[in-house]
Write a structure and sequence with these properties.
Order of helices and strands: EHEHEEEEEHEHEHEHEEEEEEHEH
Strand content: 25-35%
Shape: elongated
Number of helices: 8
Largest sheet: 7 strands, mixed
Number of strands: 17
Bound molecules: flavin-adenine dinucleotide
Structural class: alpha/beta
């Protein structure tokens, strides 16, 4: 019986695993090596490590966890169930003979999110370098650049307005022009943000430097630009929280947690992008550390 099984070894899961190891807890961490930011060229805004590559940050984190005696296993968790409030069972593998079960007194879900991305030729060539989804992460690198914003509706208008912090050369691309209200259009016009009611055919640019140069449209024509930000939504990377019956936050639909990072299911904690706070690596790491402290306390004599 482990004290805690951590599912996920991104910044949230690894940060929790490090603290659990420092508390000398018997913890086991699973990951299937597919963190959300695997395409990013660098993690911006992570104090002390600004611009560090995601792979390097995670490799360092894994080394720190194992140096403290923590266990990390690369295997997909395919099932999870609550036996009692003090006993959970985790299943890995897709069937015999690789399937195994593991038992723990606490669970930490740190499985992150998956982004809905544009499905067009060229996307993978530029994603993480000159195609982005997060103004907080990559806005600063876009000062005075010509930015195209892809999405629909009022939410995307707000997203485009946020980018005014760094540039005033913004064009909104939308396949669903009808989703823009009169109010949206007034706001866009006030900041000289043009609207192209088009669908993207392909992205084009310098493959060596990974700099985007233009966007081709299915309807014909192209838009010259330096950056593309998309706002197409995201979804949890796993459904383990559903298997456990964790309540979702009513506003954002992510996993609800209390101030101790505990979900609505006693003994099950969640941290990182899966929970409602800002989706940043440093926030995920901080939430993982907070969850570990609470898990340790909940297992300690009082
Ligand atoms: C392109 C891009 C660029 C970004 N740039 C920045 C930036 O510059 N600065 C910044 O602060 N943030 C940035 N972010 C956001 C940042 O990456 C996330 O906030 C952060 O990775 C969240 O950490 P996490 O641990 O919650 O989830 P993740 O990093 O997504 O990790 C999830 C973990 O769960 C594991 N997992 C999921 N399901 C299972 C399962 N069933 N079984 C086993 N393991 C499982 C995965 O293997 C992975 O280890 C960026 C994101 C993207 C997509």
């Amino acid at each position: 019986m482990y004290d805690c099984i951590v599912v996920g070894a991104g910044p949230a899961g690894l940060s929790a695993s490090l603290f659990l190891a420092r508390y000398r807890r018997r913890a086991l961490t699973f990951h299937h090596n597919s963190p959300r930011n695997e395409y990013a060229h660098g993690i911006h805004g992570f104090l002390g490590h600004d611009g560090i590559s995601p792979a390097e940050l995670l490799a360092r984190g894994r080394d720190e966890v194992t140096a403290h005696g923590g266990l990390i296993v690369e295997s997909c968790v395919t099932g999870i169930e609550r036996i009692t409030n003090e006993h959970f069972r985790v299943y890995t593998g897709s069937g015999t003979p690789d399937s195994r079960t593991f038992d723990a007194r606490r669970i930490l879900l740190a499985t992150g999110l998956r982004d809905v991305t544009p499905d067009c030729p060229g996307f993978r060539d530029f994603y993480g370098f000159s195609v982005h989804h997060c103004p907080d992460c990559d806005g600063y690198e876009c000062i005075d650049k010509r930015i195209a914003v892809l999405g629909s509706g009022t939410k995307t208008v707000g997203f485009a307005l946020r980018l005014l912090t760094w540039t005033n050369k913004i064009t909104l691309i939308t396949e669903d022009e009808a989703s823009l209200t009169e109010d949206d259009r007034t706001k866009l016009a006030a900041f000289d943000i043009g609207v192209r009611a088009r669908s993207i055919k392909a992205l084009d640019g310098d493959l060596k430097s990974k700099e985007l140069r233009r966007i081709f449209f299915n309807e014909g024509g192209a838009l010259e630009c330096d950056r593309l930000f998309f706002n197409l939504g995201n979804e949890p990377a796993s459904n383990l929280h559903e298997m456990l019956g964790c309540k979702l936050d009513e506003e954002c639909g992510l996993v609800w947690v209390d101030r101790t990072q505990q979900t609505s299911v006693e003994g099950v904690y969640a941290a990182g992008d899966l929970t409602p706070n800002s989706q940043l690596a440093i926030v995920a790491g901080a939430e993982g550390a907070m969850a570990a402290i609470q898990i340790h306390d909940s297992l300690s004599p009082s």
